[in-house]
Structures are given as C-alpha cells and as structure tokens.
Amino acid sequence: MVNENNITIICSLPDPASVNIVEKLRFMRNWRPVENNCFKAFRFKRFTIVEIEGHHIYQDDLDTRLEECGIGSNLIIFASRHSGKDGRKILTVHTTGNVNEAKFGGRACELAVPAPYAIRNLIRSLKSMCKDSSFEATLEATHHGPSNLHTKSLFIEIGSTRTEWRNDTAGKIVADAILMLHQDEVPVAVGFGGGHYVSRQTKLVCEAGIAFGHIFPNHQLPLLDRDLVKQAFLKSGADFAYFDRKAMKDDVRRNLAGIIHHLGYDVLRESDIREMAGLPFEMYTQFQQKVKKLCTNCKIRFTETIEQELKSACKDHIPAIMFSKIDPELLSMAERVDRNRIEKLIERESIAYLEDENGRFSHILISLTDECARRVAEMLTLECINIIKENYQVRFDADKSQLAVTVRRFSPQRAEELGISRGPLFGKLARGKEVIINGKTIIPDMVYESIEKIIKLKNPRI
Known about the structure:
By secondary structure, this protein is an alpha/beta fold. The chain is 36% helix and 24% strand. Strand 11, helix 8 and strand 12 form a beta-alpha-beta unit. The longest helix has 22 residues, at 370-391.
C-alpha cells in the first residue's frame, strides 16, 4: 500500500461535471473548512477539496501553489468533464502531458507524473459501479495539460455532453470511487498503441495484476523520441512496456522496441502480463530467470496460496525457491485421463507449476520450502498412479520401483492386413467403432493390440 495520507480533489467552478462530482462528495461526507489565504478548501479525513476559478488543464505548478498555502498532498485528482463528439455516456480516467505542442494546457513535450496505482483502482471501481447504469468506463491515453506538476496526478471525468456532466448517477459513481480509493502496489507499464480510448490497456488493468502510467495511442507514436519515452518510463515509475501489437504499424513498433530496449526495459506480451499474477516485477523477473533454466518454453502458473505468500514477501528480496519433479511419463498419462483431478490437487497447495507451450503440465513443481516441494511431488505421484490404476491394468514392481501399465492401442498394420486402407473406415476403427468391408464386420478388438508400458518411479526430488 502506498502513502495515501493526503489526497487533493480539484474542483473547477466553471466546469459543471467537476461541480457535480464535488457536490456529491460534500453531500456524502461531513467536510470542514480548511483555513488558508489562497483557496476555498474543505477537508474530510485524508481528502481535501480545493475550488479553483480556472480550468483544470491550465493548472501548471498548482501543486507548488497549494504547498505554499499549506495544502500539500501525495496525489491530486482533477474532477473534470470529458468532451466528445460521439456523445458517449462515459466515465474516464487518464494522466496528462503533451508529446508535441501544448494546444490544451501544459508545456510542449512534457509529461506529468502519473499515479498508476490510483488510476488502476479508480477505473476498476468505475467499471464495477457502471454495470447497473447507462454509463461505460474506460482509460484514456495521455493528453492535454497540466504537465508541470511534481506531484502525482490524474483526471477522472464524466462525458460527453452537458446532459451527462450534470447527471446525478454519474456524479455519485465518481464520488464513490474517489472515497473508496486505495492504492495497491502492482507492476507498472507504459502503454503503446490503440485508440484514444485504450481498450486493451483498460482490459488488462481490470483483469490482470498491473497498472499503467503513461499510455500513448497510435496517432502519437510517430512523435515519440528517446527523450519522451525515457521521460514516460521515469515519471511513471514503470517496470516494462506493453504494446497493443495488432493496432501498431510494424515499422513504428520496431522503432519503439529498439528505443525501449536501449533504455533497459522489456516489452511484455499480454500472456506474460497475465502470467505475472500481480507479483512485484523484480520478484517475478528473478523467479522467471530461475525457471527458464529448467524449462525454456514453459509458462509459470501460480496457485492462489503461493501467490499470496510471494506478494507478502519483501519485493526486493525473492524468497528461496525449491524445485521438485515427478516422472513426466506418469504425469502425461494421468493428465490425458483426468486433468481436472490433477488440477484440483495442485490448486489446494502452496506451489507454482509449469505448463509447456501446448498448455500441458510440465513435471516440475515449485515451492518456497523444500518440505512442501517434496510433499506435493509425492502426493501428485500417488494421485497419478491412482488415476492410471482406475483406468488401466497395472502391475507394480517394488524392487525395480516401476509401474507396468497395459495399454490397448490401434494397430494400423492389423487394419491393413484385414484389407482396410487409410481413409474414413480406417479412422472410424481407430476411434473404437466397428466397420463393414466387403460384407465382413471388423470390430475394434480385431485391430487393437495390448502393449506394456514401463514407467520408472524416480525419487521426486531434483
């Protein structure tokens, strides 16, 4: 949890949506006046409402002026209207800054300091509370001023026409989201690509354990140079970049990837982000590096229990990681019979496991203690044996520590000897169904053979 002691909400009096939101805030809580010689202000616990006469987008240096008046804060929320030609009933959250000239406040080629954790929490709250209303909620790309602020800031907006700006439901939803604000620390990305309403980034923030700082839409990408990209990463406190690849032109994507890698950051795909499970980025990276040494193309899957253990650990120090394994052939055979049963056993335990590029279980298990890794490997081995016993004829050789599993399988050679060539009838027999050829019925038993498969039961510890 980040420092949330002082949050300032800016109400622009000429802005009807801003006034609407602040009226709802003041109605919902008991605010007291804040004595100062500069602004009309009201406070409730960690929140301070400040009224200004001008428009939000032209408030460069506002945080400095507030501090000089004794109203400093950790976060500035600009409660604002959103204007759009499409007339959508929409609630938005975004950060500010200019990648080129400053037509609407701020300074040219300057980006504000985002509040990624707050933005994440607010858009998730808006999404949830919008479900029973006629409004939709989305993140927007970085745009307009102010940009010259050293305090973290964001805009939360009601759009897109005068009717919506004054809408009581919209005002209450936004006010509720602000009052419920909390800021959990998760990995932070800088986003590239998409339209102004960044749908892919919004989806990731709402469904995965990450936040976004600055987000740049397609039309801004050709304007980004090394200095702007570096500014975006540093001010966002970002760990990595995310590309909306399908929305980006190949040459633009390659150019930006080169800049980002030269600055020392990685570009993660959506699958990588979802795999991260909200763990601190440095911890996840170290975790991934150790795992890749064992299985290059595998993906990590975390059970809920180990996720919580890792999240509660110090983010700068990854806990010791212990590996164990079971016989891959044993696991593969059991998985083909009853994958759900294996999943249920795994999900009850404090472990992570690996899946190969085809989504099948790898035989490697990961835990934070040697005892847990060994115990789960032994339990899983026993469960796999039970699954196989229930579905196959099995002999156990204790002296050799091995299973002999009798498996029936289709024999193409036998089918061909009975006059069945490769084709529809061949396939039907292979699926265990009888066929008729030249008036003769061929049943599956005639073309199946029994073979004995030997599975060595090794010590489950690596």
